[in-house]
Amino acid sequence: MELEGKADLLSELQEEEAPEAQTEPPKQWTRVLWTQDQGPGSMSGQSVVMAGKFLYVFGGYENGQALNDLWSLDTASGLWEKVKTAGEKPNPRTSHSAVFDAESGHMYILCGSGSAFGHSNLGDVWSFNLRYRFWKKLALANGEMLSPRYGQSAVLYNSKIFVFGGTFGREFSQELFVIDLLKMSVSRATMSGPIPSPRYKHTSVLYGKNKMILFGGAERLNYRLNDTFMLDLDSLLWTMLTCSGDFLKVALLIP
Hints:
Number of domains: 1
Radius of gyration: 19 Å
Strand content: 35-45%
Shape: globular
Number of helices: 1
Largest sheet: 5 strands, antiparallel
Mean pLDDT: 88
């Protein structure tokens, strides 16, 4: 992989993640077998976060209906549990986003769509306390409003949630919103560099110390994007990554 005009940046990232060259064994998939049949069932559009040895799965879409159940999977024992929660629950939703803050022990979910895609979009933000199993809707009274959308991506960095893209139904976004969890505020970020085209159903992950890697998604004229971008979360500078090797074949289900 090389970066357009940023070869030194690639070296920096490699130093952060792999200070010493090591030979790794080939990657292999392993099917996880449950110890019981009572799991969340078949669904799409759900969110997943990892907290310790537990996977938390929220929401999703099944048989024409959006869901708002929360399930946990003990990855050590293979045991599923439908989590009993306190407090007002978020509305049923799919194609939403979730992030986990290990320091506070909170999972945050945001945006998404109800059962009627494009007609029941959501722009709210909720926190879930994993210790007390308590839901709370955040009152983001300061700054701008996070316009209702679904199919966006989100990462958590420095007590802030960075939300990129999504769709309102027919229009697609290339906006970056920053939710400050300490100030309880929302702001629309000013970015520089080659900003990714408007899109939804892409993926983003936190990488290294302060980078967000974004891949793929769909836009109005191209439902199979396979481009890759990197965002410096401090400077808000985008870099388009030029990749080599075996390219991923992209498939996307609409909506």
